Amino acid sequence: MTWKQVFSTSVGNKLIMALTGIFLILFLVIHAALNACIWAMDGGEMFNKGAHFMGSNVVPRILEIGLFAGFILHIVQSYKLTIKNKKARSVGYEVDYGNRGSKWYSRSMALLGTIVLLFLVIHLTDFWYPNRSNQGFLLGEEINLYLKMQDTFSQLWVVIVYVAGCISLGYHLAHGFQSAFKTLGVHNKRYHIMLSSLGLGFSIVIAVLFALMPISFYMGWV
Amino acid sequence: MNLTLKVWRQQNTKADGKFETYQVKNISHEMSFLEMIDVLNEQLIVEGAEPVAFDHDCREGICGMCSMYIDGKPHGPWQANTTCQLHMRAFKDGDTITIEPWRANAFPVVKDLMVDRSAFDRIIQAGGYISVNTGNAVDGNSLPINKDKADAAFAAAMCIGCGACVAACKNSSAMLFLSAKVSHLALLPQGEPERKSRVMNMVAQMDKEGFGACTNTGACEATCPKEISLTNIARLNQEYLAASITSN
What we know:
The complex is a heterodimer of chains A (222) and B (248). Chain A has 222 residues and is mainly alpha-helical. Helices cover 77% and strands 0% of the residues of chain A.
C-alpha cells in the first residue's frame, strides 16, 4: 500500500487532520509563549527581541513555510471532508435529533474553523503582512510590532473581533485536541481521560491567554 | 391510549416519498412499538390500504433488523434500546409520533421504513472474518486469552449491525460499526493472521459504500442499542495506522 493510498481513505483523511492539528497546536504554544513577553512590563523590549528572532533568523523563517503548509493542508482537508460528509446524506430527517448526545462544538468544527480562518486572515493582515512586506518578505528590517499592537488594539471593535476569534479557537481546540489523539489511536482509558482533561485545560488557557493580549493593550495594563 | 402517527411512505427506492398521518386507538401501554405498528397495519389492511413496510425479525433486541427513526432518534427515546424493545409506556395519550427510515445514501430506502443495509454485509465480507483450517476443533482452553481482552472483544462483538450509529451520525459515518467488527477480531489471537489486511480492506469497502468520515462527536455511542464504546473507533484508528506503517 502506498502512502498516497493510506492518506486517501476516510481514516487517512482524519490522520491528516490530526497530524496537522497537533502541529498547529504546537505552534500555538510557541506563539502564546512569545506573545506573553508583552507582560514583561519593559515597554515591549523583550517582546520585540522575540519578534526580531522569529523574523530575522533563518530557522524560524523556514519553519514559517512549514507552518503555512500545515495551515493550508488542515484547512483544505477539513473542507473536503465536510463536503464529503454532507454528501453522505442527501435526504435529511423531518425531526431534528437535537444534541445527538454530543457536545455542540464537536458538531460545529467546520463552522468554528471557518470563524478561526476569518480571524486568521484579519490577524495576518494586521500584523504578519505589514511586518513581512517591510522586510521585503526576506530578512529585511522589521517594524516595531509592540507599537503596532498598541495602535491596533486601541480600537474597541478590533478588541471585540479578536476576543471572538479567541473564543472560537478555544471551542475548536476543546474538541480538536482530544479528537486528534483519538484519531492517532489513543484508546487506553487512562490516557484517554488524561488527554481529554489536558485538551480542555489547554483550550481554556490558550483562549484566555490570547484574548488577554488585546484586552491588556486596550485597558492600558501594558 | 390514542395516538397520531406521521409515517414515511415510499413505494420503492426510486419513488418520491412523503409523510402520511394515521390515527391509532386503544393502544396498550404494555405493547411494544412494533406491536403498535402491527395494529396500524391490521387497520390499514381492513381499510383496503397498503400496510407500512418495516424491518423486524427476533423482536428480542438481538438481531439488529428493526430500524426506525422515532421522534428524531434512532430506536426511539430510550437509552441502549432497540425499536422492538421500545414499549408504548414511553409515550402518552394524544402524542404525535413521527417515524422515519434511517437516512444515509449508503442505506437506500427499499420501501417505507425499510432500508437496504447490505453495505454492512459487504464491509464484513471485505475482512470481518477469520480463516480456520478444517479438521478437529481445537480445545478452547488450550488458547489462553487475557480476561480484559476477552471482555473488550466480547463488548465489541455485541454490535448487532442495526445501523443506528450511521442514522445518528451527522456525517452518516459507519465507523462505530466498523470499529466494533475490527476490534472484536483484533483483540483475539484468532484474528491475528488477517489483522493488517482486515482493517485496510474493511476501511476501503466502507469508503466505497459512500459512508461519511468520523469526526468523533460521540452521537453513535450515545444512540447505540448495545452501548458500543467510542473507544473502539480509536482502536480502529490505531489498527489502521499500525497496518499502514508496517505493511509492505
